[in-house]
């Protein structure tokens, strides 16, 4: 179940998801591909780097905050994809 965040306002379309709910957004079978980082949820569905919900060994539908520490790039790469919500 998705939870709308009243603090964000209904007009923003932002979602609040738990880590468990985020797992639904794995980019498989036509589902959107979302990842989380530092409490924000990003839609990587349109990124060619996340084909079929995976990016190298990383899978969509997960909180990648800890994994990012070992990435060969910084968090600035997330500026290329839209924020669609926050983790609760």
What is the compact description of this entry?
The protein is mostly beta strands.
Fill in the keyword field for this structure.
88 residues; mainly beta; Flavocytochrome B2, Chain A, domain 1; two-stranded antiparallel sheet; 5% helix; globular
What class, by secondary structure content?
Answer: mainly beta
Strand order across the largest sheet: 1-2-7-4-3
Q: Roughly how many Å is the radius of gyration?
A: 12 Å
How many DSSP-defined strands?
Answer: 7
Number of helices: 1
- Head-to-tail CA distance between termini: 13 Å
- CATH class placement: Alpha Beta
As for the CATH topology, it is Flavocytochrome B2, Chain A, domain 1
Shape: globular
Secondary-structure blueprint of this entry?
Elements: E1 3-4, E2 15-17, H1 19-22, E3 34-37, E4 40-43, E5 54-55, E6 58-59, E7 83-87
Parallel strand pairs: 2-7
Antiparallel strand pairs: 1-2, 3-4, 4-7, 5-6
Structure characterization notes:
The protein is mainly beta. The protein has a single domain, classed as Flavocytochrome B2, Chain A, domain 1 (Roll). Helix content is 5%, strand content 25%. The strands form 2 sheets. The chain has a 5-stranded mixed beta sheet. Strands 5-6 form a two-stranded antiparallel sheet. The longest helix has 4 residues, at 19-22. The chain is globular. Mean pLDDT is 81; it is low at 1-9.
